[in-house]
């Protein structure tokens, strides 16, 4: 299993980082994309994902490459645990808010029609959720009142004792995991139903064309998230119901493997869900294929190669 994880993460990591930088560059420096309210939460998610990609994923590869033989300091283990769990849960919470906010942007756009309304209904919720998530998990991981224990043989070598407290288990497990997943499922399905209803029942074709990009952008991200994260949530609920981890260890291992794919695949989904970026990517790949095709083809075959590329 470790070798599968190593090669899966390794093959995806570098392309994912490149794609993250590409998408962020376009979202930040193309004015229309930067000013679009629906892109703001995705910019935040991409920054968080990029932070994880240049920290915990290389650390994981190092850990798997050396079969877990790695002596780490306490502070390093705390930072790793904070990034691996705390920042990732913040990622999930922000995505849950994105599914709620998308209803506002599509069906109640007057709620964000002025600067004041945008401040209270668009910017402040994002800032509040980021501060809440960071403060909550900084306290959990760096200010635990109990004795620190390091697990040298485990990849995540630090487990804060506060996460074992009953109240924290309920809050972190129920609110941060189960409730956020339910929000993503319910509001994503509701968005699809409302959009289809407007298009075919109320005949608001103009609105459909206007908001189709926002709908596709969110639903594609939600589908990726549910494929990669829903199995882990399901295993977690089964464990809460009293079934011990030893009985579901195989399912738990595979579900954890899938959760790490969420961050790696998100930049590709984000790029393909935006028509402007999708068009750019297609042009880049076409140019790359034409350049390589002409450069490698012998003189007699160059005309044929160009024709073949042109037909495609």
Explain this structure to me?
The chain has helices at 2-29, 31-35, 37-53, 56-65, 74-107, 115-142, 166-200, 205-240, 249-273, 275-296, 302-311. It has a single domain (1-280), classed as Rhodopsin 7-helix transmembrane proteins (Rhopdopsin 7-helix transmembrane proteins, Up-down Bundle). The radius of gyration is 22 Å and the shape is globular. Helix 5 packs antiparallel against helix 6, helix 5 packs antiparallel against helix 8 (205-240) and helix 7 packs antiparallel against helix 8. Mean pLDDT is 86; it is low at 297-312. It is mostly helical and 312 residues long. The chain contains 11 helices and no strands. It is a multi-pass membrane protein. This is G-protein coupled receptors family 1 profile domain-containing protein. The chain crosses the membrane at residues 7-28, 40-62, 74-100, 120-143, 150-171, 177-197, 218-239, 251-274. Residues 19-270 form the G-protein coupled receptors family 1 profile domain.
Short note summarizing the structure:
Pfam families: 7tm_1. This protein is mainly alpha-helical and 312 residues long.
